[in-house]
Design a protein that fits this description.
heterodimer; A: 9 helices; flat; B: 4-stranded antiparallel beta sheet; binds adenosine-5'-diphosphate; binds magnesium ion
Chain lengths: ~260, ~260
């Protein structure tokens, strides 16, 4: 038993080592820069690390709550916005992909709203939807369009050969929809979800900053900048980075699982 | 059935496609009766309407004239009474071998145990034991087409329609699959309409070889092949029949210049 590592383990180990080195180099560059240009605006990784830990342990004086609460506030908003986007974009996308009338009807509306950055809606939504729901709506808009367009594209990309095969097996329209079109669309839906998660995450932070009251990590960053605690501001940014990486990983995992389940490896 | 009954009757079939303002006639004056248990090959130059013919029989394409009767009933649309095997397989990639074969049974709401019995039978018939839970991407081309054949047979259709089913396979696999198909055919006693552009393949498998003319597709000539199977590709009569059919096809190519 000499080969402790198989090929795939060796590959994994190699990529993990490279990731670790990359992170270490990143922190070193940061450190060197903050040492070369000493400034309260540009804290060292050490200062940020201390602020990061402290932010979870002690409530910040501006809002009176810890980072845990800001984080859960942002996450709950994000999940609501994303869930709404998925719940609406999937059926609308299926309909628009399936029916030409629905597509001709929906397309102009989509094309008017899509070019407006979701964040541009934040002040409006804050006024009409309030403290909690205000920042939810930009997330909804940010995730809605990538899911919608991928689902529409997915339905249109269904292999006509599979439709023919199903029809010769006796499938009528409802069966074609549930047993051929829907499963064929799943990989496209997953791509839409992955892109939607990324955009939605950008939206929640930006929306909280703009609305500027009602908690959330975005608000935390903004208030820390306003009171001049740049180490805490950076700590908030680190929290966002970590949560962002986790959502990306999660959606990547879901996408891989889905394509494996789809027999597309 | 006594083996002489007509299963499929194609009468004065006409098919044209509208393209912008002009009309493209793909098939005309096509009449053919196919008897129960018969193995009929349709042969013809590429673009002569072979696929179109089969798609019309399958109900995937509407005819523009004449009619087609299956067991004396006019065909109006697709149905599981005709099993179709596609050149590019057309397997559902997200379904396992077993679930692909059970597709037609599933949509007819057959109970699970019954479905399983039938899929087991056809998995054994086409020689896919051990691959029940594999997905299509894990299979070779020949194995994929075995699934395609089993899926078509699982509905117990009155007729099996095959559109160049081995066209996507390499020569060796192709020869093996021809033998396998003949075995399956003799075990199931199905009526088969088999499309190919290989003269060799047609002479090897068919009871009758229908040679089509170039567009618009009509029947040019019908060869009866009454030899025992398995047939010997190296025999003199095999070579001479192949030559005769090739000559027919070549005339076609010349008259259409
Ligand atoms: N859906 C269609 N629309 C227009 N023309 C078609 C269509 N399907 C087939 N054709 C035309 O009909 C003719 C016969 O095609 P096909 O049946 O595929 O030939 P084969 O299978 O013998 O090669 C070709 O000229 C082809 O371009
Ligand atoms: Mg063809």
């Amino acid at each position: 038993m000499r080969a402790v590592f198989g090929d795939s383990e060796r590959k994994l180990l190699k990529s993990v080592i490279i990731i670790v080195i990359s992170l270490v180099v990143f922190v070193l560059i940061w450190w060197a820069l903050s040492a070369a240009f000493p400034s309260e605006y540009f804290p060292t990784p050490y200062d940020v690390g201390v602020a990061f830990i402290d932010s979870f342990q002690n409530p910040d004086p501006n809002t009176g709550v810890t980072m845990w609460q800001h984080m859960s506030q942002s996450l709950v908003r994000f999940i609501w916005g994303f869930a709404l986007a998925l719940a609406l974009a999937l059926p609308i996308g299926l309909l628009m992909g399936f029916s030409n009338v629905a597509e001709s009807f929906g397309k102009p509306i989509v094309e008017i709203i899509r070019p407006i950055p979701p964040i541009a809606w934040a002040p409006f939504f804050f006024i009409v939807a309030g403290l909690f729901w205000g920042p939810v709506m930009p997330v909804f808009l940010g995730a809605f369009f990538p899911i919608l367009s991928n689902v529409v594209f997915g339905v249109k990309s269904v292999d006509p050969l599979l439709l023919d095969a199903a029809r010769t097996q006796g499938a009528g329209k409802p069966t074609l929809f549930t047993k051929v079109i829907l499963p064929s669309t799943i990989p496209y839906l997953m791509t839409g979800i992955r892109i939607g998660l990324g955009i939605g995450w950008m939206c929640i932070v930006a929306a909280e900053m703009i609305v500027a009251i009602g908690g959330g990590v975005g608000l935390y960053i903004r208030t820390m900048a306003d009171v001049g605690r740049y180490d805490y501001m950076f700590a908030g940014m680190v929290v966002i980075a970590i949560l962002g990486i986790l959502t990306t990983e999660l959606s990547g995992y879901i996408e891989r699982r889905a394509s494996k389940w789809m027999g597309m490896k | 059935m006594d083996g002489n009954e007509v299963v499929l009757s194609i009468r004065d079939l006409h098919k044209s496609f509208k393209k912008d303002d002009s009309e493209l006639v793909a098939i005309e004056d096509f009449s053919l009766d196919i008897k129960d248990g018969e193995f009929v090959c349709v042969l013809g130059p590429s673009g002569c309407g072979k696929t179109t013919l089969l798609r019309i029989i399958a109900g995937l394409e509407k005819l523009t004239g004449g009619k087609i009767l299956l067991n004396n009933k006019e065909i109006t649309g697709p149905g599981s009474d005709r099993g179709m095997v596609f050149q590019e397989f057309g397997l559902f990639p997200w379904r396992t071998v077993r679930k692909n074969i059970e597709f037609g049974l599933e949509i007819r709401k057959m109970p699970k145990e019954e479905r399983r019995k039938i899929s087991d039978k056809y998995i054994e018939l086409v020689g896919l034991e051990g691959f029940e839970t594999s997905h299509p991407y894990e299979l070779s081309g020949g194995m994929k087409q075995r699934v395609g054949i089993a899926r078509a047979l699982a509905n117990d259709p009155a007729i099996l329609l095959m559109d160049e089913p081995f066209g996507a396979l390499d020569a060796q696999t192709r020869n093996l699959m021809q033998k396998e198909l003949l075995r399956i055919w003799s075990e199931t006693k199905k009526t088969v309409v088999f499309i190919t552009h290989s003269v060799d393949e047609a002479v090897y498998v068919a009871d009758r070889v229908v040679v089509m003319s170039a567009r618009p597709g009509k029947i040019r000539y019908i060869f009866n092949v009454e030899w025992e199977r398995p047939r010997d590709r190296a025999s003199v009569e095999f070579a001479s029949l192949r030559k005769k059919i090739l000559a027919e096809l070549e005339k076609e190519a010349v008259t259409n210049r």
